[in-house]
Amino acid sequence: EIQAVKDGLKKLADLGGLEGLEKIAELGGLQGLEELAKIGGLEGLEKLISAAGSEGGKKLEKIAEDIERAMSGLIQKDLISVDRSDQWIEVEINTSILYPSGSAHLQTEAVPILKDLARILRDFPNPMRVEGFTDNIPINTLVYPSNWELSAARAARVVRLFTADGISPERMAAIGYGEYRPRDSNDTKEG
């Protein structure tokens, strides 16, 4: 429980860049909260949380705007979409420009797009999840015995590229969904 509080405070500090919260997390979680309570009670904590959320939201908005500006041509062609809330950004890249069917080898034209994205993302401390998907066409090869392995390999390939382009590997997770969380219907060639 104490570790969860420490982790939560550290995440809040990272999100808003508030040195005070980072120090509270380092001081020992619950003890730090007790100190905070002495200083400003729950109102002090609420103010810190509100400030962290506001700052974090501004940083995320800037990241999203930078991505949209850099990828505007691909966004207009519906090959990339950028979605956001006050706590996350989702950049969805159409698989057709990333990989050939049944493969985790990036297509040549995908590499500069991903490098541009890495250039934007590398200076921000936010954690990242790279998610790999496949269609529902069964695969059974020595390299990819199922769509699970293929989707995980696709995500891992992007994480490796991002790492090579300066994004800290500690910030990233590669997640493979196989065919079980389709982004679109698999009923048509486009889906």
Report the end-to-end length measured between terminal Cα atoms. 44 Å
Principal-axis shape equals globular
Main β-sheet description: 2 strands, antiparallel
Radius of gyration: 20 Å
Average pLDDT, all residues = 79
Task: Report the portion of residues in β strands.
Answer: 5-15%
**Broad structural category:** mainly alpha
**Total strands:** 4
Q: Any low-confidence stretches, pLDDT <50, length ≥5?
A: 47-54
Order of the strands making up the biggest sheet:
1-2
Characterization of the model:
With 191 residues, the protein is mainly α. It is 54% helix and 10% strand. It has 7 helices and 4 strands, in the order ααααββααβαβ. It has helices spanning 2-16, 19-27, 30-70, 72-76, 95-98, 110-121, 147-164, and strands spanning 80-84, 89-93, 128-132, 172-176. The chain has a two-stranded antiparallel sheet with strand order 1-2. Strands 3-4 form a two-stranded parallel sheet. The radius of gyration is 20 Å and the shape is globular.
How would you summarize this macromolecular structure in one to three sentences?
By secondary structure, this protein is mainly α.
What are its keywords?
191 residues; mainly alpha; two-stranded antiparallel ribbon
